[in-house]
Amino acid sequence: MANLFQTLTNTVKHWYIPLIFGILFLICGFYVFSVPLATYVTLSIFFSVSFLFSGITEIFFSIQNSKSLQGWGWFLVSGLLTTAIGVYLIAYPQISMSILPFVVGFTLLFRSFQLLGFAFDLKSMKIMSWGNVALASVGGIIFSLLLIFNPIFTGISLVTLTGVSFIFMGIASIMLALDLRKVKKIPGKVSQELRDKIKSIQDEIDDLKK
Question: Where on the tree of life does the source sit, at the highest rank (predicted)?
Fold first, then answer.
């Protein structure tokens, strides 16, 4: 119920930010497919810049929407983690072939779980397309796990696993952004009088919890 009140009385700011890094991860995913396995480790700088940019923008997005989105804290945690991974890859550009897939896979896995959580938040907001975000997130989780665990056992190359993981997460981020755009439009359809009543009810509920 609190989530619904929050949705009706606040507007999402900068909904397009998840769209930006969704497109960025799609570009990463398709670009990875063009790189031979022998030069895979040279992508560490490419990954670091991508993670650093998406992490910083996600931190900004979370702070801007701390009063609009109930799960804004997860955006903040994800942004901090992704930024830290980006800094780590910049500091250690010569990272080994055995470590890089684990680092990238863990980062994408965390972000995929985060997106899955937001899919269920969208469900609670009655956004009908939440299932699309959930499915894309699950795809990201599956391929991230395959990337983390030794690809030798899966019979799929590192390039394929990395590329597909980025693509699934990019798709989920883009879908989330489009759904957040729908959420942004909701408060504009609610009159100020109704907002005041909703706020009054929410305050009464909060007082009862104390």
Answer: Bacteria
Residue 35's contacts (CB-CB under 8 Å, 6 or more residues apart) are 42, 43, 159
Evaluate whether residue 205 is within a structural domain. Answer: no
Residue 128's SS3 state is coil
In a domain, 174, yes or no: yes
* pLDDT digit string, tens, across residues 47-101: 888 889 888 988 988 888 777 777 778 888 888 998 998 898 888 877 766 688 8
In a domain, 206, yes or no: no
- The DSSP result for 66-124, as a single string, is TTT-TTHHHHHHHHHHHHHHHHHHHH-TT--TTTHHHHHHHHHHHHHHHHHHHHHHHHH
Tens-place pLDDT, residues 109-129: 988 998 888 888 778 777 778
- Assess contact for 82 and 107: CB atoms under 8 A: yes
Q: State which residues form the domain around 91.
A: 8-200
